């Protein structure tokens, strides 16, 4: 942006998907703090013409920091667009399994490993690198790991060390979802261990292995992500909006181009008739009348979605109805509602309301366009 500013370039709008500052996948590029710095958005401010709009995607947990930085840079926050999607993956810690791992890794497996030999010797026995042993024993590493079952067997056989706790704890720790049938609760290869049982046993390895973990079975730490907020901001206009539009061509939103056309469907209509006089509802004064949606489509909203089934089913499906009206009798109010002489409800075309908010995710080719040098 600075290069464009130095060249005297000014643009009508800036649309950006900055780092959400979540440290995504442990990557440093997503935790630099650049999106929280007002200096970043001051460059976008300088690049825009007066009245130019900024759209900045953000994460649900860090939106507020980005929005404040944008506002501090001089922008007006005009709205927040909510993008709904159904493809989010919950990044929740399974507390029950975490307790199992803590017991096995920290209190049992790791001390046992350290007692057997050096990291170099353990690496040779387990057929892994010494660095992997660091992960298994939880030393000199930012990401400790649970010893895998296969490596555990290799180490047991080499050192002739068969821990008592392996029978009912180890097979359930760090395993994939499903069932495992084996000749001993430690796995099929535990048949090699002296004194192993010969009876077949089926273990549900999705269950917690320890009593402490069972108390927290089903607990987690996060919800499934299903929306991304988008900051909608504008650089202040010069004078009035009308004056700014005539001078710079910016400051407004092309509403009609954002409408969803009806495509031959009958336009919905509804009654906005209200009458009020001297604290009474009468027919003497009317403000508003029946309103019909333009043929060009509905007014665009600040909600979008990706079209996935899980999102679409949350929108109501309306069947075609005819315009209906009726007359009321009795007092001035019925159940707290003004007793108007004539009432009606809108005519609705058939279909899901989701079609008015559809905005698909970009394709892989579009997302990576212009990133060949990265």
From TrEMBL:
Q: Which Gene3D superfamilies match?
A: Vaccinia Virus protein VP39
Specify whether Cell inner membrane is a keyword of the entry.
no
The DNA methylase N-4/N-6 domain extends over: 11-92
- Give me the segments passing through the membrane: none
Cite the entry's keywords alphabetically.
Methyltransferase, Transferase
Asked if Transcription is a keyword of the record, the answer is no
Q: Name one GO molecular function term.
A: N-methyltransferase activity
GO annotation (BP), single: methylation
Name the PROSITE patterns for this protein.
N6_MTASE
Mention any Pfam family matching this sequence.
Answer: N6_N4_Mtase
Q: Which parts of this chain are annotated as the region Disordered?
A: 188-210, 257-300
Family statement: Belongs to the N(4)/N(6)-methyltransferase family.
Q: What is this protein called?
A: DNA methylase N-4/N-6 domain-containing protein
Q: Which organism is it from?
A: marine metagenome
